[in-house]
């Protein structure tokens, strides 16, 4: 899919992320400082506006750079900085690609995941967004083309797995075992975005 077409798809999905604001706020309040809903809603709105502004000849890197900068500006927070930095790193990994083809998507997810892990000082199993991003990267690496529905299922399983993990990073670590049974908010945000993509173009594969 051409970068400009994917940008329009991303924008439409981001428009729907406002629906997840209250859920993400509640999850973060249970094991964090409660600002995740605002961060994601503001960041998604910024991304939607930014990627709608890319031209018809935009390349993948241009779309990702615009998205990363907009998300980071949306609401100053550690999550916004991590996601924004991950998207900018993803842009560098895509070279001069002009379409979000399977190889490009694999490269950008891998780069974003690696950067978020490094900057956040976290690893899978510590109840963070990585517990969704790493399985998604594995799924993309294992097949030349992955249906979006399969990625949604993978993310859903990752979110469910976080309910059995004791928080180990950030403010969530302060609550310790009291966080058990509550899904990680960042991981849930990724799932909701994939579901928003699915609802706007259910037959798309990546």
TrEMBL record:
One of its GO terms (cellular component) is cytosol. The keyword NAD does not apply. Residues 4-199 form the DhaL domain. SUPFAM superfamilies: DhaL-like (SSF101473). It comes from the Bacteria. Keywords: Kinase, Transferase. GO terms for molecular function: glycerone kinase activity. One of its GO terms (biological process) is glycerol catabolic process. It holds the Pfam family Dak2. SMART domains: Dak2. PROSITE patterns: DHAL (PS51480). InterPro entries: DhaL_dom (IPR004007), DhaL_dom_sf (IPR036117), Dihydroxyacetone_Kinase (IPR050861). This is DAK2 domain-containing protein. It comes from Jiangella aurantiaca. The lineage of its organism: Bacteria, Bacillati, Actinomycetota, Actinomycetes, Jiangellales.
């Amino acid at each position: 899919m051409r970068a400009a077409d994917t940008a329009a798809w991303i924008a439409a999905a981001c428009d729907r992320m406002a629906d997840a604001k209250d859920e993400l706020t509640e999850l973060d309040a249970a094991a964090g400082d409660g600002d995740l809903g605002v961060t994601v809603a503001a960041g998604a709105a910024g991304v939607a506006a930014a990627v709608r502004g890319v031209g018809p000849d935009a390349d993948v890197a241009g779309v990702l750079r615009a998205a990363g900068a907009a998300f980071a500006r949306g609401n100053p927070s550690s999550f916004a900085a991590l996601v924004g930095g991950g998207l900018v790193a993803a842009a560098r990994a895509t070279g001069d690609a002009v379409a979000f083809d399977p190889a490009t998507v694999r490269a950008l997810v891998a780069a974003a995941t690696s950067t978020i892990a490094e900057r956040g000082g976290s690893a899978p199993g510590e109840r963070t967004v990585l517990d969704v991003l790493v399985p998604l990267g594995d799924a993309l690496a294992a097949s030349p083309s992955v249906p979006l529905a399969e990625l949604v299922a993978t993310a859903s399983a990752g979110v469910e797995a976080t309910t059995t993990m004791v928080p180990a990073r950030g403010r969530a670590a302060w609550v310790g075992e009291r966080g058990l049974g509550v899904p990680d908010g960042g991981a849930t945000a990724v799932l909701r975005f994939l579901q928003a993509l699915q609802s706007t173009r259910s037959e798309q594969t990546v």
